[in-house]
Amino acid sequence: MPAADPYTVRLTPGDQPDAHVHAYVQPDGGWCLNNAGFVSDGETTVLVDTAATERRARALRQAVLASGAPLPRTVINTHHHGDHTYGNCVFTDTAVVVGHEACRSEALAADRQLHLLWPQNDFGDIRITVPSVTYRDRLTLHAGDIEVRLIHPGGPAHTLGDTVVHLPSQRVVFTGDLVFQGGTPFVPVGSLSGSLRALDMLRSLDADIVVPGHGPVTDPSAYDATERYLRFVADLAEQGRAKGLSPLETARGADLGPFAELRESERLAANLHRAYAELEGLPEGSPLDPAAVFGDMTAMNGGVPVACHA
């Protein structure tokens, strides 16, 4: 079934003409169908993430213009994964790309990662464009009077170089892939423990509106839902490892219960690889074998490789 058309959600009231904050949602939030967003005072625009293909990034560009905002001067990357960064090149005629210092190094190392995973997909004319401005802990930008805070969770979470984008006056937060609304969280390239700590940091921001990395705009209840899943994975890993089972064997024997409704349930096998690594004492964020991780997800998917839907 083809994905539904992207749509734009205004997150600030219409009586605030100098504070345009929008989420750009790409249903249904599955593999490679990420969210973006933009913040503008009518003269200066900050864009949060791009998209996985040239075509989708150009649609995002048109959505920004259709809102009445000018093209962005700044693009923020919440992390290095290609579904959030491949489209950077569509905006660099007007914008500089900003991200965590580890996001830059991870993007350089990953290069054309989506092309390797999904070689049959039409990504268009994509030129890998990494952040040229980086930060370590926190950085504050401004779109006119709108304060845009960039916050690193303090360690590996979804990736090593995650950025949370917080608009304190508007009580809005863009979480990147620290939160998947309606989809299965994904931590094999980051840290399960770090992801739990990141949720505590998100709670401390006291935002009312939560824009997840994938799925519809939500509220802070998404933090509790994400935590329940991650603790489920941690418990499964302890039980499976104690029985001498592999991550795949543990995943196949698991009763997903309430988590069976989440998209991309095959990610359980990948997440268990990370949980096992942490139980074995490997440092958070240590590289895992991508062939083993994606191979086990393929096995969980009935032998069919996961598909990029962009």
Strands, helices and their partners?
Layout: E1 7-10, E2 20-25, E3 36-40, E4 45-48, H1 54-66, E5 74-76, H2 82-85, E6 96-100, H3 101-110, H4 113-117, E7 133-135, E8 138-143, E9 146-151, E10 164-167, E11 172-180, H5 192-204, E12 209-214, H6 221-242, H7 247-252, H8 267-279, H9 290-300
Intertermini distance: 12 Å
* DSSP strand content: 15-25%
Average pLDDT, all residues? 97
Per DSSP, the total helix count is 9
Gross geometry: globular
Radius of gyration: 19 Å
Structure description:
This protein has 310 residues and is of the alpha/beta class. Helices cover 31% and strands 20% of the residues. It has nine helices and twelve strands. It has helices at 54-66, 82-85, 101-110, 113-117, 192-204, 221-242, 247-252, 267-279, 290-300, and strands at residues 7-10, 20-25, 36-40, 45-48, 74-76, 96-100, 133-135, 138-143, 146-151, 164-167, 172-180, 209-214. The strands form two sheets. The protein has a seven-stranded mixed β-sheet with strand order 1-2-3-4-5-6-7. Strands 8-9-10-11-12 form a five-stranded mixed β-sheet, covered by helices on one side. Strand 10 (164-167) and strand 11 (172-180) form a beta hairpin. The model has no long low-confidence stretch (mean pLDDT 97).
